[in-house]
Specification:
This protein is α/β, with parallel strands linked by helices. The protein is built from nine helices and 15 strands. A six-stranded antiparallel beta sheet has the order 2-1-4-5-6-7, with helices on one face. Strands 8-12-13-3-14-15 form a six-stranded mixed beta sheet, with helices on both faces. It has a three-stranded antiparallel beta sheet with strand order 9-10-11.
Length: 365
């Protein structure tokens, strides 16, 4: 199986990094340094190599280095099943970012055809106890990793829904104003629902086939909506009076929720301990990676920010073993090098320091 890895990452005026060049091999990368040094900024830059808004969901303007605010550039040399690609992500003075692949302009969706990127960050630790919106976003990121076109479909649905909601808030009752919008919503809603179900099936199969030290999570998509476009269109039309009163659309994939259960215990993920919830998240990311390795032809890039949090030494070692067995280039962060001791010489180390607002990145080994 061909690998997927970065051999070079160059940051220019990106977040805290005025200029940084990281040259590495295909092995996992352990990044350590004090809090605030800029470790997560490196992972965020890599997350932009996939469609979407990146692991922080930040605007292009928010990613520019201050006080210069000159704009920023991320360049990566990506090795994958389709060969070697040079990717440039550019934002000029806070403008929307532009993508170039091998010096040619490209849409963001093109990134999903040459690379897959998954991440686990501390804010996701609250996944099971926060609102449904966070879980939908988590599910859609997994779905997007399998089906890059899922992003375009989701955007089309959201655009049509915003226009319909505007009519509802303005108390427009004339059916002809709604017909075309609801037809577009129905088609894209059903596609979104089917895409999500496809992703959950792939995850389930990957978990069943795996030997892992992490607990299996049984996932269920809770979404009350018809499974066909005509049924969805009818449901939207029939629900107009109710939606007029609410001032928004009350049926569709934007109302879905992802439910998780700790399989061997039969306990809802939201009721598990903090450590168990973290282990379930790690398990899902690994399952997603295994499924992608079979589907895409290579394991994805893994971005694991402060991954050691809430994992004991035994589970940390198990995670590292599974990353190596998978053959993934994982970029992991931690405040001290000792957190990655169990990796031994299977990893390469990057030190990030910060002094007087300037970050320095050093590849140690």
């Amino acid at each position: 199986m061909a690998g997927l890895y970065l051999s070079n990452l160059t940051l220019s005026h990106f977040r805290s990094h005025r200029r940084a060049v990281i040259d590495v091999s295909a092995r996992p990368v352990a990044i350590h340094g004090n809090n605030g040094a800029g470790k997560t900024n490196i992972l965020e830059a890599i997350s932009l190599l996939s469609p979407g808004r990146g692991l922080r969901r930040a605007s292009a303007e928010d990613m520019t280095r201050r006080p210069e605010a000159l704009g920023w550039k991320v360049t990566a040399l990506l090795h994958g099943p389709l060969g070697v690609s040079e990717i440039e992500i550019i934002s000029e003075k806070g403008a929307a970012r532009q993508v170039r692949i091998d010096s040619k302009p490209a849409p963001q969706t093109a990134l999903g055809r040459i690379a897959r990127v998954l991440w686990l960050i501390p804010s996701m630790d609250r996944l099971w106890i926060e609102g449904a919106e966070g879980r939908r976003r988590f599910l859609d990121r997994m779905t997007l990793s399998f089906l890059p076109d899922h992003a375009e479909i989701s955007l089309a649905y959201e655009k049509a829904m915003r226009e319909r909601n505007r009519l509802l808030k303005d108390m427009v009752r004339e059916p002809s104003w709604y017909s075309a919008l609801e037809a577009r919503m129905a088609e894209t809603a059903v596609a979104i629902h089917h895409n999500r179900q496809h992703a959950l099936k792939a995850l389930s199969q990957a978990q069943e086939a795996a030997e892992t030290a992490f607990p299996t999570a049984n996932l269920t998509l809770e979404c009350e909506m018809p499974n066909d476009a005509e049924g969805m269109r009818s449901a939207l039309a029939e629900g107009r009076m109710r939606d007029l009163k609410a001032g928004r659309t009350l049926i569709g994939p934007h109302r879905a929720d992802l439910l998780g259960v700790y399989a061997t215990k039969g306990v809802a993920a939201r009721d598990c301990s903090t450590g168990e919830q973290k282990a379930l998240l790690v398990s899902l990311i690994l399952a997603n990676a295994r499924a992608l390795a079979a589907d895409f032809g290579a394991p994805p890039l893994l971005l694991l920010d402060e991954v050691a949090a809430h994992l004991d030494a035994q589970r940390r070692a198990a995670l590292y073993d599974e990353i190596v067995a998978l053959g993934a280039q994982a970029w992991m962060t931690g405040t001290e090098d000792g957190l990655f001791e169990a990796m031994g010489d299977r990893t390469q180390t990057v030190l990030v320091t910060e002094e007087q607002g300037v970050s320095t990145i050093t590849v140690v080994s």
